[in-house]
Amino acid sequence: MNGTTGTDEAVARRLRVVVVTGAGTGIGRATARAFAAQGPELLVVAVGRRAEPLAETAEAAPGRIVPLVADITAPDGPETIVRAAVERFGRLDVLVNNAGIAPHATLGSYRPEGVAALLATNLTAPVLLAQAALPALTESRGVIVNVSTAVGQRGWPSNSAYAASKAAVDSLTRSWAVELAPRGIRVVAVAPGAIATPIADHAGVGPEQRAALRAWQIAHTPLGRIGEAAEVAWAVTQLADPRASFVTGVVLPVDGGAVVS
């Protein structure tokens, strides 16, 4: 006998475990908190490279958001993340590939090391993390949610490599949806537009340049405003919800109408 009660077993059956990468700030933080807010049966492993921001993310739901300092681009990063979730909670139900970088650069200013770092974070890491998570997601009949960008569906002259890396994520989403359907795994994506996050600060964009970018984004967004990270997080949680069980392969723009304008 293992000492578990019928109640314990029922709770275990209801338990859902979510891994969110890039959870220290912005959309990742909002997503981790949105999942945790759904109830005590939903536990979140919040992954990022810096301990302090992750701790701030976890403050919203102590015990239900568990910080995990890890680099998704490290050779052992994907396996470390999946192993940490499964060893602690016994399962993995949802993988949110959110972490990304967006260095501000035009074609004439790209450097090989910059392009390599961008692709390692935005494209290679999600592939390897999804691969590492396959056994656990197959067992749970889980969900992969990729976070791409609306500019991957449009021209983006000030950061073409970033847009291309995220367009590739859209393609992965559709291909994985077909490939993994026989395993019972759904694969979906959200494509945020102009969202109020620190990503421009992380990219080294100055105040004047950032203000000009925001003005351009608002002018090209039919709803006429910048979105909030919580609005993207809502879309992520809805697509990952078991009630969305017949939804797979979709790339959902959360962009105030920018891609259709």
Automatic annotation (TrEMBL):
Q: What is its EC number?
A: 1.1.1.-
Q: What is this protein called?
A: SDR family NAD(P)-dependent oxidoreductase
Pfam families in UniProt: adh_short_C2
Q: Which residues form the Ketoreductase domain?
A: 16-221
Q: Which PANTHER family match?
A: EG:BACR7A4.14 PROTEIN-RELATED, ZGC:101858
Q: Which SMART domains match?
A: PKS_KR
Q: Where are the transmembrane segments?
A: none
Q: What molecular functions are annotated in GO for this chain?
A: oxidoreductase activity
Q: Looking at the keywords, is Oxidoreductase present?
A: yes
The UniProt keywords, alphabetically, are: Oxidoreductase
Top-level division of the source organism's lineage: Bacteria
Under Gene3D superfamilies, the record lists: NAD(P)-binding Rossmann-like Domain
Supply the enzyme class, top level: oxidoreductase
Looking up InterPro entries in the UniProt record yields: KR_dom, NAD(P)-bd_dom_sf, SDR_fam
Give a yes or no for keyword Chloroplast in this entry.
Answer: no
